[in-house]
Each structure stands twice: as structure tokens, then as C-alpha cells.
Amino acid sequence: MNKQSHVLVVFPHPDDEAFGVSGTIVNYIRHDIPVTYACLTLGEMGRNLGNPPFTTRESLPDIRKQELQQAAIEMGISDLRMLGYRDKTIEFEAPGKVKQDILDLITELKPSLIISFYPGYAVHPDHDATGEAVVEALESLPEKDRPTFHAIAFSNGHEEAIGKPDILNDVRPYAQIKLDTLRAHASQLAWTLPSLEKAYHEGNKEAVERLTIERFWTYPLKAEHSS
Amino acid sequence: MERINKETVQLHINEFATQEVYLHLETTNGAYASHFDESFFSASAYIRNAKITYENGKIAGDGPYRVGLKLDIGWVYGEGLTHFELDEEGRLLLAGHGPDGKLAIAMELSKTPFR
Fold this sequence. Notes:
Shape of chain B: globular
Strand order of the largest sheet of chain B: 1-7-8-9-2-3
Helix content of chain A: 40-55%
Number of helices of chain B: 2
Number of helices of chain A: 10
Order of helices and strands of chain B: EHEHEEEEEEE
Structural class of chain B: mainly beta
Shape of chain A: globular
Largest sheet of chain B: 6 strands, antiparallel
Distance between the termini of chain B: 19 Å
Oligomer: heterodimer
């Protein structure tokens, strides 16, 4: 997985990177491959506010912004972009707006690889809309200028529809950093961590796989003149 | 935030009456509800920065609480409210938090637009 020149990661919410991609990100950074993380929103509409509440609907974005910055530090990401969209609204933006932001990033960074969600198989409407915008951006480029797109899918029944992932990244050496990245997103993930961490250290197969193998599908972009 | 004190919240509601105020109203069962349970019918709504004026507003119930605001030509209604805060910007934040620690409803009033 280390033949990239620059990796662009595009997700809508702080913490979208933590479970599925943080080990892969750390691997690239450890191999001196620059990684840019573009995060579209600050997860303003997150539901985990505690009971008793530790924050409010209005203060949550500040917390999640700090958590995102801390997660970037854990992973070693020095180029973090916050694009200023609002949680739950990506699919309603004017057509082409998010696509253009992604095209601008591609023009600036010339990534060899983009990582985002697999449109249609990523559960949250923001995830699907983000993946769709990536596909639109890439398909508008001549094939020779297109970075590869590694997409993440996890909707119920996704493997029946799109098959098994063709990329399995072994991120075993980075499992601890991955846990630290998850921990950085404490406001949203703290409640899931103790049991995951315990299961991992006890060697529970599912927990170990979750922290040591990251799964991607190389997205089948349309040929240049087929649309 | 702290647990709703009905009398205190009623006084705050009165302070926002009869003037233009901005409303954030939201209910949510989470974007993953139907993913984790396919039989679950997911529905939620939010409105941010609706500009309203109410002539009277009231908090009702014994907890969780309900709040209704009577507009010139309509109503605003919310139920399931458990916590409140008058924040440092003078905004009245009401919220309903389930035993799972997740927000189920937010109902907020501000004299300046929410960011």
C-alpha cells in the first residue's frame, strides 16, 4: 500500500476516519507519504451529549473541532482542512458545490489516492453524499489525471451488492495509535471504547480484526467518454 | 446543563416573549437507527434560525416537560425536555436527553441568530 505520492482523505464528520481508516493513514505517514484530511463538517448534530449532559447542542462543535485536531495529532496528520459545511446537510447543497471543493483539493494537492465513503453503501446520508461528490469530481477528470479511489462501505448487505473489499490493509503495528485516535474523539466514542479495548487485549477475534484490518473497495469509476 | 427547574424555565420563556427571537428546534433518533434495527422507522427534523415572535409560552408537565409557544398565526411545540441552560450568550437552551446519554430533542431560543 506504500506506492502513493499523496493521499487525500475526505469525510463529512470528525471521527469518520477513526474506525475505518486511521491505521491506514498512520501507515502512509510513517512511510513519508503526505496525507491531507478534509473534513466537511464539525459533526454539529451529534447525539452523544451525555446524561447528565457534558455539553450542549451549541457547544458541541467546539468540542468536536478540538477532538478532530487532537485525532490529527495522534495520527501525525499535519494538513487538516475543515471545510465549513454543516452536519446532515451535505446532500442538500447546491449541485456541484462539494464536487468543486474536492476538485480544488485535487488540483492543489495532486493526490495519487483518495479515500472516502462508497456512495450508496455508507449508511449516513452525509457519507453517501460525500462519496458521490468524490465520484463526480473524479469522473469529470480525464482518466490519466484521476487518482485511485479507495471507498469504505458498511451498510447492511453491502457485500451482496458490491462484493468483497479488494484492499485489506494490515494495520496491526498501529492498533494502539488507532485506539488513541478513537480516544481523541471522546465525546462521541468514549462509551464504546472500554469494551472494545478490553476485547482487543483479550484477543477477541472481532475486536482484533476491527483494530488491525482496514477494508476498502477500489471504486469502479466510469470510463472517460461513457457518460 | 442542569435538570429542568420548571419555575426558572418559565421565567426565561417569559423573557423571550413578545419580540423577534431565533429558534432552533430539533428531534432526532440518530442517523444509524435503521441501520442497527431495520424494523425501526427513522424520522427526525430540525429547523435552525427560524425567526419567530410568540405572545406567550409555557412549560408544562412533571418531567420530562413540554413547551408550547403561541405565535401570531401558529404554534411551536416540543416534548421530552429534561435539561436547560441559559448560556453565556444569554440563549435559552432546552434539551431532552435519554437514559442512553443521547440527545432526543433540542429546543433553543436566542435574541441573535445561531451560528
